[in-house]
Structure prediction request, 245 residues.
Amino acid sequence: MLSEGEIGLGIWLTIRCTDVAELISHLGFDWVVLDMEHSPLCISDVQNLIQVIDETKTTPIVRVAWNDPVLVKLALDVGAHGVLVPWVNTKEEAELAVKSVRYPPKGIRGYGPRRAAMYGLKTKEYLETADKEVMLIIQIETAKAVENLEKILTVEGIDAVFIGPYDLATSYGFLGDPSQPQVQKAINTILEICKKFKKPAGIFASPTTATDYIKRGFQFVAIGSDIGILMQACTDILNKLKSKE
Prediction:
């Protein structure tokens, strides 16, 4: 979808519940991110969630906790179709992320695909396609990363760029407030550089900001998180009912 210029809508999964993941993956989202950086999901949780997501057309992507080949390897071996690597600030860090998702000689991914190869039933098929089909998304979320983005995007093997707007805002001195003009300017800069290098740009949004980001040219848009939308829906219902008391 992204390579053809289409817009992919997704959501963050942070709740350790297969019922929630299964339901969400049947609603029509193009992708989900299972968040191992800022939620309590462990690798066994991720495998359990991917097992129910795989029954649908929704693409499971795992945000690993750090740009670490070991963490990337674990996520891929349990069946992630792609990885989102946080905190990529330099060309060298981007090169490490690329190597982490690829087998030798192009990369350093250790052998042992396990569930990704259906426990050995589809090993040959998986090894023949993994390097080409596993999606690598790098997260740009600091002022340093913005300064280095053109160098970062010269690294072959990056499929998409994703903005972490809250960390980006914090990096510019506006703790958790991406609405600040300086932060929005940085977001526009990232988007323009991505267009220059023909890389799809994504961003974490909300139901109220997603439309604006899509109009600006973002293709890979998260409309929020499972827990955030649950909280907002409950709050809205309660407020409406209590206002009528």
